[in-house]
Structure formats: C-alpha cells, structure tokens
Specification:
It is a single chain. It contains eleven helices and 40 strands. It is an alpha+beta fold. The protein is elongated. A hairpin with a 7-residue loop joins strand 13 and strand 14.
Length: 682
C-alpha cells in the first residue's frame, strides 16, 4: 500500500540535560519532538537467506541474512528530535520477523552512526518521556558498515511494553575533528582500563576472563555514556557489548562504563541478562531504588574506585559522602544507589574507623576484613542481582575465611541498621521497669555498639526506638545485682526505615545444652491398628533401644542413625528435639524410625511422630555433664502430638497400619506418656 500524504507522529517533549561522573544520559533535544514523515516507499520482501534490496532513501542496501517475507517501508523524515550529531533522519519499518541489516559505504575515515528513537534496554538513563536516540549495533567490513535494525515488537517489562525503532538518524563524525580526536583518546583509555581490570582479577580467573573478553570485544559509540550488553529483537536477545562514550566524557565516566562491561565479562550471558534487566530508568549516587531491586550501578561505581581511586570526587569507603545525607531511618538504606559500592569498598578498607552517615567527620570504630581487590572482584563474578544476594555472597565468603562475625557491624556502620521496640519481662512474665541496658555485638572478640549504645525501659518494661544491628544484637540487662546477656534478632530482609516490634523479650538465665551428646525418646499411646481383616487395640510403645549420638546447635538437638546389627537387621533413625533454652520446654520434636529385618525380606517396621509443647521435668548441668528430661503423661500427651504414623509388614508380606490413637488413662495399661531425654553420656 502506497501512502502519499505526510504522517505526523506526536511523541512527548523532553528536557535538555547533561551528565557527568558516570551517569549515562544522552544529549537530549530542546526543540519539539514531533516527527514529520515524508512520502513512504513500500518494498515487497520475498527473499532467500542472504537476499538484498536497495534502499532508495539512504542509498544503502537492506540485507536479510536469514531471508525475509513481508512489507518494508522507507521514507525521509523532515522533522525529528535533535540528535547528538547532525545528519539524515530516516523512516524504516518492516513487518517481517527475521533479522534485517542496513549496509552503507563508509565515507573515508569518518565515524558513522545509525540511531533509533525509542525505549532501549541497558545501563542508561531514560528521559521523562521514556524515549531517546540510541545507537544501533554496527560492524565494519572493509569499506562498508552494517547496522543491525530492530523493528518494533512487544517486550513487557518495567520500562515499556515496546522495543525496537522505526525512526532513525544517520550521522557521521568527521575524521580529524576535535570530537573524533577526543573519542579516540577515550577509547584508548577504555582499552587500558579493561586491561587493568583484567590484571586485578584473581590469577586463576584471568585466563578464562581474557578469553571471554577477547570473544566479546566491545564496540564504541559516541551518542552518550552507557553500556548495553544485549540487542533485543523480536527473534530474541543477541550479545552485543556496546560502550557509549560521548566526547565530553570524563575519565571517571570511562571507568564507570568499563565497569558495566567487565561486570558482563565476569558473569555468564544468561546471568548478566538478568542483571541488565534490573537497570533503573534513571539513576545517580544516593537515588532510591525501593525494594532493593538493583545493584548494577554499584558494581560500575566500584570499578571507578578500582581504576581511579574514587567515585567522581567521593570516597566510597565513607557512606556519608556517598549517600548525600540520606538517613537510613527515612529510606531503606540498602535500597540507596551507592550502598553496594560502599559495602564492597569497606570490605577492602583497612581503616578501623568510619565516619557517621549524618556527620562524616565524627569517627566510629569498625572491624576490618581487608579483602584484596581480586577477592572482591571474585564476589562480583558470582552475579548477584540485588543487595540481598550480594550480602549473602559476602557472608558466605567471609564465613569461609573466618570473618563472618564482622559483617553485621560493617553493615550497621554503612546504614543497614534498625530501630526496634520490645517489652522486657523476667522469666515470670513481670515487666523490667526503668532498666538501662547496653546493646552490642561481638566481632573478632571486640564488642561494638550500634548507633546508640544504651536503651532504657519505661514503667511497663517497654523500650522503643532502640538501635540494633541487622541479624543478632545482644542486650546486656542488669538483673538482681548482676547482668544477663539477652540475644535478639532482626531479619535483615526487613526495610531499615520501619521500627521492628519484637514483642516480649524474656530476660533470665538460659539453659546450656552444649554438652548434649545423646538423645532418646519414648512414647506410649493406646492405638488401633488394622491387620489383615481385623482391628487390634493395644498400647503402642515405640522407644529407642539406646540413646543416639548427636549434637546440639542453636536450640536444636539432631541425631542420625543408620546401622546394621550382627543379625543383619538394618535400622535407621532420625531424631530432632528443639528446646526453648529459657523455659526448657520442648517446642518441637520429630522422630523417624525404620527397621528392615535381616532374616525375612518382607518383615519391616516404620513409624514417625512429631509434636511439641512438652515441659521440662529435669535439668542438671555441671560444666562437665548434662542431664535433661521433658515429659508428659495422661491425656495431655495427645495434645503434644502433631502427627503419628506406623506401618509394618510381617514375613508373609501382610501389612499393619495404625488407624488412630488415644491418651485416655482409662484405656487400661496406661497412662499415656511422651518422654524425651538429652544427656552428655549414653
């Protein structure tokens, strides 16, 4: 279909902005963004792979590497938003779904660019209207240059439901011009920065990363400051490492964009695609990306620190300079752009002090971990997509080198800190009134206080707006002429700008189960069992023949048994007992047991019982020995049992199945009983 009348397309107006210090933003038009398209020339496409069609508008040639079928429309555009460099505006639209390129002859040593107007992906800012000029991937082959065209298609994501371009701008940068000379110097600097980054990697990583970088040599574009790792097309995503550096870019900006590129090199293409998809529409140091959705810019900021020693003029080891005065209690600190860079920089820093966020000149003590740049780059290579994942990667690594206890203090010092409220009560439930406690956590044997060191309860035992570390904090509470250390815990996944209500915190001596090396359990209930065609009623009394060896960790004893006795009987047993270390009550238990006869293949027995709420009856701990028991009898036993199953087969293969159970003392032969034991000796 031929259209002869001009077409007017209205796009929104855009503000003219400039950017420096690593923020990616194109030079944007100050005039109207209306497009006026001239007469459209339709071209029928029905080509085999490698087919070509001459472009009557640009004078170039359209190439269809995989063939094509459909309608290709071309026209001149007489009015369009201003582009970074003057040139010709073109309308190109193809309704096929195969790759399409535009090949043009090079003009001497001039640098040619073909830009598209729309919503791009990658690490670059979007203007208020959402659309902008962006370079299309290009490849030079002899005296020719080929541009990969991306026709519009649906790609629902956080930025826009559309990708691809029909409005294009073809321009050149004259060889020998001041911009060309400056761009050549910037690209030389970028190549040197890439080499320096590769040299900073762990020695073991360097060969594979150099091989990957050699296979992914970036192409450079002058239409803005950005990095794009993937070209998005209707037929899929293609790896196209594109570094944008406009002529006015600073050395810090070069290091920033190289950081994006090296982030891509260090991770797999699949992982970096996920990372690139988290790129914010607009960004800057101190900007808030609520929900901790991205750290892609933080890794690029860290590249500036690695290659230049600072982020612009900011020292990333000092959060007060990086966050621009933002308070962790006003916004969620880990959602602040720059937080991830500060964390990585602090892992490297050997300074045992750090400035307060609100008053950077006021120093506070902070533990150091003294990781090398190579170690930090290896952490980046793990491919975290957000700050929570990065924290987990750091914690895992520090655990391996014996320094994980320092991380909560480091996080608190750079803003990952909390305010909490709680009601302190004694073991009888009575409030601890007007008690002043000290808050701390230990790192490398040293006690560190949070933002405020002390807190005091009111007349009803409440403490409010008290500072705490992410994870665990210890409250040292005075009680009866002595003091008791009470652990509290705050989930680090919670936002920092919300007061956390811990409810009642019981202050009292906790029980010590470190010597719990053996565990045992016995159960007695009145059961009904289906066997053959009959229902039997009997006292079901599974018990361990002997205590099983295990260990107590945190608040839970666990034991695993898998053995074959002298008669060939194969027994497996799994026992876990969780205990409230203040009251001694068994909060939960689980016991799985199976027996396979060594004489008869068909003869088996298995049961499982779970439950909780069994009170402590005996506790004795001397420092060298431990004896603990918890027990219930009578009808209360059934209340403590959550699940109870039993299944067996006899030598003939006949099955018996537990149908129900009771804890009525009048059943005969009782009473019902649940008994659990932990001890230091068998």
């Amino acid at each position: 279909m031929r259209r002869t009348s001009p077409v007017i397309v209205l796009v929104g107006s855009i503000v003219f902005l400039f950017l420096s210090c690593g923020r990616e933003k194109l030079t944007e038009p100050s005039n109207s963004t209306d497009f006026t398209i001239g007469t459209i020339t339709p071209l029928d496409v029905n080509l085999a792979p490698g087919g070509e069609i001459a472009d009557p508008v640009s004078g170039g040639t359209f190439i269809f590497p995989e063939g094509g079928s459909g309608l290709l429309e071309v026209a001149e555009i007489s009015k369009a938003p201003a582009a970074p460099y003057s040139g010709t505006d073109l309308y190109i639209n193809y309704d096929g779904d195969t790759p399409l390129k535009l090949r043009l002859p090079l003009s001497g040593n001039d640098e040619m660019m073909l830009l598209g107007w729309g919503v791009p992906s990658g690490s670059l800012d979007l203007p208020a209207g959402g659309e902008r000029w962006i370079a299309l991937p290009a490849m030079i082959n002899g005296g020719l240059i080929e541009f990969e065209l991306a026709m519009p298609f649906d790609l629902p994501d956080k930025r826009s439901n559309r990708r691809g371009y029909t409005y294009h701008h073809l321009s050149s940068i004259p060889a020998g011009s001041s911009d060309a000379v400056r761009l050549a110097a910037l690209r030389t600097q970028a190549a040197a920065d890439i080499e320096a980054y590769l040299n900073a990697l762990p020695t073991a990583m360097q060969p594979s990363m150099r091989t990957r970088a050699a296979a992914m040599v970036p192409t450079y574009y002058a239409d803005g400051n950005y990095y794009i790792g993937f070209a998005r097309y209707i037929w899929g995503n293609t790896v196209r490492p594109m570094i944008g550096l406009e002529a006015g870019a600073s050395e810090s900006t070069v290091a920033h964009e190289v950081g994006h590129y090296m982030h891509h090199i260090l991770t797999s293409d699949g992982q970096y695609l996920l990372i690139e998809n988290t790129a914010p529409d607009t960004h800057g140091i101190g900007d808030l990306h609520d929900g901790r959705t991205t750290i892609i810019e933080d890794v690029a900021y860290f590249s500036q620190f690695l290659l230049r020693g600072s982020v612009g003029i900011a020292d990333p080891t000092e959060p007060g300079f990086m966050y621009r005065g933002i308070s962790p209690y006003v916004v969620d600190a880990p959602s602040i752009e720059g937080f991830g860079c500060v964390l990585l920089s602090r892992l490297w820093s050997a300074d045992p002090t750090i400035g307060r966020i609100d008053r950077p000149t006021e120093r506070r003590p902070i533990p150091t971990v003294n990781l090398s740049m190579a170690e930090i780059l290896s952490l980046i290579s793990l491919g975290a997509t957000n700050i929570n994942q990065l924290k987990a990667d750091v914690e895992t690594y520090l655990t391996g080198v014996g320094k994980a206890d320092r991380l909560p203090v480091i996080l608190e010092r750079i803003g990952w800190r909390y305010l909490f409220r709680a009601r302190l009560v004694d073991i009888n439930g009575d409030p601890l009134e007007n008690v002043t406690m000290r808050k701390f956590t230990k790192a490398n044997g040293v006690e560190y206080a949070p933002y405020t060191k002390f807190g005091t309860t009111d007349d009803d035992g409440y403490i409010t707006l008290a500072h705490a570390f992410p994870g665990k904090t210890t409250l040292r509470v005075p009680l009866l002429g002595d003091s008791i250390d009470v652990p509290i815990s705050i989930d680090p996944l919670l936002p920092t700008n919300r007061e956390v209500d811990l409810g009642e915190v019981v202050v009292g001596d906790s029980l010590d189960f470190n010597l719990a090396n053996y565990g045992n359990i016995k159960l007695s209930v009145y059961a009904s069992e289906q066997y053959l065609d009959r229902i039997h009623h009997y006292w079901f009394e599974p018990s361990m023949w002997t205590s099983c060896q295990g260990a107590f960790d945190g608040d839970t004893f666990t034991s695993e048994l898998d053995e074959i006795d002298n008669n060939g009987n194969h027994m497996t047993s799994s026992l876990s007992i969780s205990i409230d270390i203040r009251s001694g009550q068994v909060t939960s238990f689980r016991w799985n047991y199976t027996l396979q006869s060594g004489y008869y293949a068909n003869e088996t027995r298995a049961w499982e019982v779970t439950g909780g709420g069994v009170p402590m009856t005996t506790y004795s701990e001397s420092g060298t020995s431990l004896s603990y028991e918890a027990e219930l009898t009578g009808t209360a036993v059934c209340s403590s049992i959550s699940t109870l199953t039993s299944h067996s087969t006899d030598i003939a293969g006949n099955e018996a199945q537990l149908l129900s159970y009771e804890c009525d003392d009048q059943s005969g032969g009782g009473p019902a009983r649940i008994w659990l034991k932990l001890s230091s000796v068998e």
